[in-house]
Amino acid sequence: MFEKPKFKMGLQLYTINENMNKDAVATLKAAKSMGYEDFETFGFDGDIGTFYGYKSSEFKKILEELQITASSGHFGFSSYLNRSNDELKGFVDQCIRGAEDLDLKYITWPWIAPEQRTMDNFKIMADKLNVIGEQVTSAGLGFAYHNHGFEFLDHNGETGFDIILRETDPELVKLQLDMYWVMHSSNSSPRELVKDQPGRYVMWHIKDMDKITRDYTELGNGSIDYTSILPDPAESGLEFYYIEQGGNYTHNPMRSIADSAEFFKKHLQKYL
């Protein structure tokens, strides 16, 4: 007897960002037909409160009409890294309003620019993460940090990720585990990271790595054997996962999410 998956199959919409900005409704309909049920947003405009050109309340209606959900969003915090906490808090208020309109469960800090990736800035960012986490948690939402590969670069025996883990409050700052980047750039495995911070990795990003270039690729095309690296969801604290591909599409983004969905449903969904 087929057991219903514990988690909704999710997609980070950055994967199909161009399609979303051209025709969000048709794109979401197509993604739903592939089996995606939950989405992570990208590209919120805080000044006017829009997602993909729609006011947040209008975008929520689209999700409701399609009977799909959005549970997390990536928000543009990096430009506030070296600005005052008052300015940051003003933007966080905008993010909270947008998140509440969509009924998101998590607001996520996704990235810092290459020129910001210094050890001093990781310390500054850790402070900012705590500030945001307190503000977001007080609003009844969750807050998370999403890793890439640059956090794992060694700086005289220490990494940026070490600073993030050590200097942020685990009650206020959860983690979104991008397993591609862990396999690409870290000396640790996803399972080891989860073992070190159990219950804190509330979200995962799942994507594959090209066997030659090590760039992104569709699930099943690359070198990552997820059956051997997936952490235990309960130990992780997993609430949501998102399939993602940030580029290097074999054909085009929509074909890529279809191919990844097909592989995931056939080979990996049984674990989740």
Automatic annotation (TrEMBL):
GO molecular function, one term: isomerase activity
Transmembrane portions of the chain: none
Coiled coil: none
SUPFAM superfamilies: Xylose isomerase-like
Gene3D superfamilies in alphabetical order: Divalent-metal-dependent TIM barrel enzymes
Domain Xylose isomerase-like TIM barrel: 28-266
Keyword tRNA-binding: no
A Pfam family per the record: AP_endonuc_2
Keyword set includes tRNA processing: no
Superkingdom in the source lineage: Bacteria
Key words of the record: Isomerase
Protein name, per record: Sugar phosphate isomerase/epimerase
